[in-house]
Amino acid sequence: MDKGKDMVVKFLIVALLQVAIFASIYETNCMECHKSMPVKIDKFFYRYLLKYSSEENLKSALTEYLKHPTKEKTILQAGLLNRFGIKKPTTLNDKELKEAVDEYWEIYKVFGKLK
Known about the structure:
mainly alpha, elongated
């Protein structure tokens, strides 16, 4: 490999490592699956917010669902439930799950953003 190509390869490796290091748990574990769904992840947030009303209740319900998903706990509408089914339990540990749910809240919360 010539010196120019070698530098490009090194640069690309460093860039990919930086992306991997700085990608959040939310981005790598939640967005990865949700980005291909016909209903975007923000719509799920608003359904949770309508049902649970507060930050504490929403985070608690979402965490419980992600750890122990059941048909009774889901907020999916019947059509989506039939199409996608109940998700598998998260593989994230409690700390990682809390971090992901906290980031989800921060991204989509409406409190303090309405005028």
